[in-house]
Predict the 3D structure of the following.
Amino acid sequence: MDLEERFAGGVALTPYQDLVEKCLYYLAREDERQKIAAKGFEIFSRTKQSEYLGNALNLKYEPTDQEISQDGSEDGSGDGSRILSQETRKEINKGISEEVFTEISHESRQRSLYLDLMQKCLTNTIYQDRPQDIWSGQAYSKKKRARGLDWPSMAHTMIGSLRMANLREIVEKVLEDDIAGDFIETGTWRGGACIFMRAILKDYGVTDRKIWCADSFQGLPVPESNKYPEDAGDTHFTYDQLRVSLQEVQDNFRKYDLLDGQVEFLKGWFKDTLPIAPIKSLAVLRLDGDLYQSTMEGFQHLYHKLSKGGFVIIDDYGAVPACKKAVHDFRKEKSITDPINDIDGVGVWWRKIG
């Protein structure tokens, strides 16, 4: 028997990933669900129960004598307006499936195009702005921008295309698995990664999660080398390029029409803001503080709020030895054995399993 014939009345076979996307789409859009329900009720109400059940069970539908009589005449000479032929049923089912799934497929393509474009805009691979760091020779490099190895002069993020793609994949996985909690980035610079997370939530119609942007909005702190000797000699605090005001970050959100009540800002040094942050739970914890101190403070004050199944992303793991050491010191202290996964030779992530 053809597999297609095993399903009827609006039920259809579809690849698992496509099915997940369709479910997420309709779960987030009550008006679309109501439209489908109304369409189904309309068809169901004009279809005889025996035919409907027979069709669903792949039984050959034969109208009863009583149904024939009710349809018009005892000898079966009625016009058959209440009895659907097999061909008619196939056409109805085919039409419903094509209409619904074509709409979903179109929505999925739109989502992909929107988020792809957001990533290109935030990393500015479209206009390819020159870097402002001293090691890139003031020349745009596609490879460096992909791996986040330059400091863009105009782009709203410096984490690069590969880490942006990783962030999108993780956020979408959180939504797919329905992991409870908000999303936070500690160390937002111009806000690009947080803007991207907000764009994903908006595109999926998610209204019950928040994006938390934690930053001093005045650059990096002077190392407290007496307390954190791993940061001794660090010069990040001397770079004016890393000083981005709260106003500028908020303006960047506005440029994408993404500044709303689902975006929260924690202004100040992590040691002051993170311990009192009014965050109940997190699904994504993205640490981008460079220093041992900044990384450790993010772990100490936020990791226990990360839901089981949530994700940790460390932006500077492969670029700043002090950051890497903070990661391993914390994991050792908390006996964390969840495997660390590389993104691009710099950033890493793991999923909280235990």
Q: What stands out?
A: The CA atoms of residues 134 and 151 lie 9 Å apart. The chain has two domains: 13-109, 170-351. The mean pLDDT is 84.
